[in-house]
Amino acid sequence: MNEVISNIIERRSIKKYKSDMVPREIIEQIVEAGTYAATGRNMQAPIIIAVTDKVLRDRLSRMNAEILGNPDTDPFYGAPVVLVVLADSTNRTGIYDGSLVMGNLMLAAHSMGIGSCWIHRAKEEFASEEGRAILKELGIEGEYEGIGHCVLGYADCPMPKAAPRKDNWVYWVE
């Protein structure tokens, strides 16, 4: 089977991570793959915030947990790296573009033996006063909407098995 298709079929969301940091060189390759996602009219409007700083990582986790309604949990499952994907909210295809970036990030991570998971609630985080303040602190200007957090790390659990595919997933018209 083609290597790309194998990675697509085999990738699973990881929900338990070791605390070991992923080397920067690997993170850079994963992030670069994200920048090659298809975007409407090749505007390349989404941005990625690569967070390896534990203080900011924990701040984002706390914000996310509060939105989730469970402030005593870590919605990032202990992953040491968080790649925040934001879309230009003035761009008509921003949500789609950002979603494709997320897919590229997760597939690239899997191809390099790094676990990943898409964590939601970035929209609410970065619509908040605290989220906007974080962007300002980082020197990021513009109108951005949170698409997701791609958490990365080394899995501290067995690789989950894929659920069977549903029968009515594809309809052929020949």
What is the tally of helical segments?
6
Structural class based on helices, strands and sheet pairing: alpha+beta
User: Span between N and C termini?
Assistant: 25 Å
| CATH homologous superfamily label | NADH Oxidase
What order do the helices and strands follow? HHEHEHEHHE
Strand order of the largest sheet: 1-2-4-3
Quick description:
The protein is an alpha+beta fold. It has 6 helices and 4 strands. The radius of gyration is 17 Å and the shape is globular.
Keywords:
174 residues; alpha+beta; globular
What do you see in this structure?
The chain has 174 residues and is an alpha+beta fold. The protein has a single domain, classed as NADH Oxidase (3-Layer(aba) Sandwich). Helices cover 39% and strands 16% of the residues. Strands 1-2-4-3 form a four-stranded antiparallel beta sheet. Helix 2 runs antiparallel to helix 4. The chain is globular. The two termini are 25 Å apart. The mean pLDDT is 97.
Task: Give the helix/strand layout.
Blueprint: H1 3-10, H2 24-35, E1 47-51, H3 54-68, E2 81-88, H4 94-111, E3 115-119, H5 122-127, H6 129-137, E4 144-153
Helix pairs in contact: 2-4
